[in-house]
Amino acid sequence: MIRRSKKIERLNLTPILDAIFIFIFFLLMSAQFIDIVQIGSDAPAIATISQDKKDKEPPLNLTLDIRKDEIMVTTGLENRVYKKIKIQEQDGKLVLGELIKTLVQIKAKNIDEKSIIIKPNQEFKYQQLVEIMDAVKKLEKTQGVVKGKSKKGNQVQTDTLFDQIIFETVI
Amino acid sequence: MRNPSLRQQRKDKAMADVDITSLLDVLVILLVFLLKSYNASDLTLDLAKDITLPNSNTELLGNHAVIVQVNKDSKLFVNNKELGAVIGNADKIPDLYTRLTEIKVEDDKLAKENNLKEPKNINLVFDATLPYATVRKVMHTAALAGYPQFKFIVQANY
Known about the structure:
The structure holds two protein chains of two kinds.
Chain A: H1 14-30, E1 36-42, E2 63-66, E3 70-75, E4 80-86, E5 89-90, E6 93-94, H2 97-109, E7 115-120, H3 126-137, E8 146-149, E9 155-158, E10 164-167
Parallel strand pairs in A: 2-7, 7-10
Antiparallel strand pairs in A: 2-3, 3-4, 5-6, 8-9
Chain B: H1 4-16, H2 21-36, E1 55-56, E2 66-70, E3 75-78, E4 81-85, H3 94-113, E5 121-126, H4 132-144, E6 149-156
Parallel strand pairs in B: 1-6, 2-5, 5-6
Antiparallel strand pairs in B: 2-3, 3-4
């Protein structure tokens, strides 16, 4: 019996290997192994408002006055105290549940408002400041959404709280 | 009868054929890992010595701009060059102001030549343990030098 030699067809992988090598080299060169992100904040701008353009409603002027032991949430031009929240830490992190709850209440009544003024005390740690900035900008997925009525009368639903952060004492 | 020299030739040819399938497997895994960790941001940051970035939940990627870094000993770095320290009670840091003003003039000139918007962003990198007083001085100086849009560079939690 004659046994025929079976020729195995093999795929030529060399070109694909070349392409993958180039791709890997490019990705390795541009790789950043720390995930770096940014939090935006603008310096307060001074503008002259003419009498004709004045809003019918007074501005919310929501301010977080961060003191040594407490955060004072104030609103309005005369900085009326809305709530005082005691600063508490747990496992080296700030406990911000009460602050978020307060901000959700304010946001629900002023759904179009986006700005918040932060006024930290001089000794306040930068890590804690970042935690507060995170909390005031956006609700986490587990924290649900805020519902409210816009100035135009539409029902609005959002997970963004106050994403325009202004530091009061910068200039 | 078979030709022995031809058989020998075939044998040699078969030995030269290296199986690269396993190598290809490893490379594909490496490629997937690198693609997963790929960051589309145009910001390249070389962290200065003794800086621990604070953690944040934000997902916004950084952009290219002037980078000011302050380490835990309050040493200042502008675009990775050391520039003294944040000391004293004055709000304005003179050395930082001078350097940022120089950079601003160059940036404005470049932007004008390329019909781009006047650059106003500044990337601020602070050590997590620094007090707000230091952060405020740097922000104040940057705003005076023409960079009022602060971008705090932090490390993502995810």
